[in-house]
Specification:
single chain; alpha+beta; Double Stranded RNA Binding Domain; Arc Repressor Mutant, subunit A; 2 domains; 3-stranded antiparallel beta sheet; 31% helix; globular
Length: 179
């Protein structure tokens, strides 16, 4: 396990990797900061996954559309959290999904009939690989920009960077389908 700090237009970010795979991406000081890492934090290093993540972030903050699938990801979580994070990976750049929609899709992936939006919201908030696993693209059913572990101001900045009209965030419809 190795780490690296990187400066971005949205603030300083801590990256963590287990060599080939990215295991963490947190804004400095965010809620649940580095919660999956041992203490003391692993030492700084130059793992291939960290180099790839830095390149991905540079592309992202340049306003381009890098795919999350360009990176090898290895988030640590419960089966339910992993299902929710898999749903988040399916939200296209520049589009949003409600917590309820995330819950329904996670339930489907897990073979369940239902899942609560609140439970999905808790899993979204514990996403250990922010931005790349795009938890900032999840909003309330009424379009409200509810919560973000990295801070609501950052969520707004990331959504604006992706060209989302915050006065009508669902203009593309659920899960990126034009209405």
């Amino acid at each position: 396990m190795t780490t690296a700090y990187v400066s971005t237009p949205a603030g300083e970010i801590l990256l963590a990797a287990n060599g080939a795979a990215l295991t963490g991406l947190w804004f400095a000081g965010q809620k649940h900061f580095a919660r999956t890492l041992p203490r003391p934090l692993p030492p700084p290093g130059d793992a291939p996954a960290l180099t790839a993540a830095k390149r991905w972030l540079t592309t992202y903050f340049a306003g381009k559309r890098p795919s999350s699938f360009e990176l090898e990801l290895a988030p640590e979580g419960t089966p339910f959290q992993l299902a929710v994070w898999r749903v988040l990976l399916g939200i296209p750049y520049g589009e949003v999904m409600s917590y309820g929609e995330v819950a329904r899709e996670a339930a489907r992936l897990l073979g369940r009939e239902t899942c609560s939006a609140r439970a999905a919201g808790v899993a979204v908030g514990r996403n250990p690989i922010s931005i790349v696993i795009p938890c900032h693209r999840v909003i309330g059913a009424d379009g409200a920009l509810t919560g973000y572990a990295g801070g609501l101001e950052r969520k707004i900045a990331l959504l604006k960077l992706e060209g989302i009209d915050l006065s009508d965030p669902f203009r593309h419809g659920p899960a990126g389908n034009p209405t």
